Automatic annotation (TrEMBL):
Lineage: Bacteria, Pseudomonadati, Pseudomonadota, Gammaproteobacteria, Pseudomonadales
Annotated PHB accumulation regulatory domain residues: 73-109, 114-149
PHA accumulation regulator DNA-binding N-terminal domain span: 9-68
UniProt xrefs under InterPro entries: PHA_DNA-bd_N, PHA_reg_PhaR, PHB_accumulat
The name this protein goes by in its record: Polyhydroxyalkanoate synthesis repressor PhaR
Regions that span the bilayer: none
Amino acid sequence: MSDRNPIRLIKKYPNRRLYDTQTSTHVTLSDIRRLVVEEESFQVVDAKTGEDLTRSILLQIIQEAESDGEPIFSSDMLKGIIRFYGPFQGMLGSYLENSIKAVADIQAQTGQQSSQAWSDFMSGQVPMMQKVMGQYVEQSKQLYLNTQNLFGMFPGFPGAAGQADKDKKDDDKT
């Protein structure tokens, strides 16, 4: 991303075409994905209303990438994300954002390696990373459950009665 260039403006027209005002050309979602990869600063706006459509376009790019090749998000993972919308939405958003930043930081700390070298390195690390991530997920789950149990101690807190009933049923099973 260059400090001397202003944010690149991409306009989306009613015919669904995207127009890059910097290059005066029509662009595709693949072109916008390249801007993301190259860390180019941009904003997508509705040509008629000026409404910011950047998030919507980024979600389209993710959806397209998920359809091609091996997806990042399994159906179970997507269901879990959907379940988090509501009271825990901010917490999950922060968690995911911080996790992605951590991976990017690790990649940056290892130096500027070629994509192939990084892929080779990571493929060798997958079993170890899966174990570490599994442990991390389990610890996060326990933290979440402990927090839920803590809130269950306060009568009148939403979900407190439901958690207490669930805990009692679990105790009855053992």
